[in-house]
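Reopening: structure tokens for the FE2/S2 (inorganic) cluster complex, inputs below.
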Amino acid sequence: MSELDLEGVKSAHIGRRAVLCGAVAIALGVSADIASASVPAVGIKQVGKKLQIDLAKNKALGKVGGAVTIDLSNGTSVAIVRTSAALKGFTAMNLSCTHQGVTVVQQGSTWVCPAHGSTFSTAGKVVRGPANQALFTYPVTATAKTVTIG
Ligand code: FES
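Re-run output (same inputs, fresh job):
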């Protein structure tokens, strides 16, 4: 996975979910202490080769453990997760399981693969196999108002 995959996001934003939602393809997550998965989000802007997420429009990122997800044009998804209360406390990771590529889903404070049960921490580290590599992460920068990935 590379920056090229993230560039694929740009075209994906005009893809199926954008059509369905009338917005960029995004899904809001829920806080880590709620055993649930992501839901559609808003406030994504393309800035050059990067994607910028408006924090005011994505309240899930206001809590540690909260997440938003972005569907990529290649069929995979990226999650942006609030991993700490620090200004720059965000992680962006591809949700393709590193075992065989099935998309992991958020369950409480973990990401779980429905195929063979691999489990990853909120930030994408392997908690339980068969996957033996962390989820792929993307560069993240953050301000008080936005999170930018890519
Ligand atoms: S594809 Fe995820 S555990 Fe096998």
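Residues 3-95+135-149 form one domain. The pocket of FE2/S2 (inorganic) cluster is lined by residues 97, 99-100, 102, 113, 115-118, 130-131 (CB under 6 Å). Marking as resolved unless the reporter disagrees.
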